[in-house]
Amino acid sequence: MFKITNFLENDDIRILQEDGAFRTIEYLRDLSVSAREAQAAYFQAQMNIRKRQVVCDLNKSPVTIQKGAMAWTVGNVQFTTGVKGAKDLFGKIARSNVTGESAIKPEYSGTGILVLEPTYRHLIIVDVGQWNGSIVLEDGLFLACESQLKHRTQMRSNFSSASLGGEGFFNLELQGNGKVVLESHVPREELVEVELQNDELRVDGPNALAWSGSLEFTVEKSTKSLMGSAFSGEGLVNVYRGTGKVLMAPVIDDIVVEPETTTES
């Protein structure tokens, strides 16, 4: 039996989204800053640069999280590595080597609460069931998911997708019915969602953050001829073809700098 006070009901905390086992929260103000940091913290908050966290209700579902993301737990909470034998371990290591994701993603279950480490990135809860039961993520987006989702490795449909498009050969794919939390540099309010019905989407640059696993992804010339591509100034574009959805950012910054916390000596 436990009771948590001065957390979610705190007037400096706002619940952003709630779905499945997850709630995303945002700290409206950072009251723990020093006098030296107060001015920077004020303007950061005005520009929507705020600390955010994920709160997981394990009574609703066991959850799998990114390695090192746990902040604290309360209640009857069990932790496992998520490894189900030697074969599963080797599979996870192989997937980690090609996708860049951590091999071991901790799984938490029980009848308590799990709170993840705060982040300045934007937290987005996605229902995988609404993405034709499969979603493919760009590197670094995965933060947590309900544990019934299966983790797979999706390979590009051709090697040109990676070598010419500046992408990796493999991506993390989540399959099934459940919720996943994405950790994005771009807020959900700015993300563009395109739904395709036996059609295609062409994107100049790595703006797509996630897409349905049912879509074919290739990298192609913007026009049928090299001469035409040269004169158009576009060159190569990422092409998503078939039936499914694509979540993409309107712009991608080359460098994203997160605020640092300094302490007085």
Put the structure in a nutshell.
The protein is mostly beta strands. It has helices at 38-46, 86-99, 160-163, 226-232, and strands at 13-19, 22-27, 52-57, 63-65, 70-74, 77-80, 107-110, 113-116, 122-127, 134-137, 142-146, 150-155, 170-175, 179-184, 192-203, 208-212, 216-221, 236-248. It has 4 helices and 18 strands.
Straight-line N-to-C gap: 41 Å
Largest sheet geometry: 7 strands, antiparallel
Please state the structural category.
mainly beta
What order do the helices and strands follow?
Answer: EEHEEEEHEEEEEEHEEEEEHE
User: What is the arithmetic mean of pLDDT?
Assistant: 83
Number of H- or I-type helical stretches: 4
Roughly how much helix do the residues carry, as a percent range? 10-25%
The portion of residues forming beta strands comes to 35-45%
Rg calc: 20 Å
Uncertain ranges: 85-90, 228-233
* Shape descriptor: globular
Number of strands: 18
Task: Give a verbal description of the structure.
- This protein has helices spanning 38-46, 86-99, 160-163, 226-232, and strands at residues 13-19, 22-27, 52-57, 63-65, 70-74, 77-80, 107-110, 113-116, 122-127, 134-137, 142-146, 150-155, 170-175, 179-184, 192-203, 208-212, 216-221, 236-248.
- The chain is mainly beta.
- Strands 10, 12, 13, 15, 16, 17 and 18 form a seven-stranded antiparallel β-sheet that branches. A six-stranded antiparallel β-sheet has the order 6-7-4-11-14-9, with no helix packed on it. Strands 1-2-3-8-5 form a five-stranded antiparallel β-sheet, with no helix packed on it.
- A hairpin with a 2-residue loop joins β1 and β2.
- Residues 85-90 and 228-233 have low confidence and may be disordered.
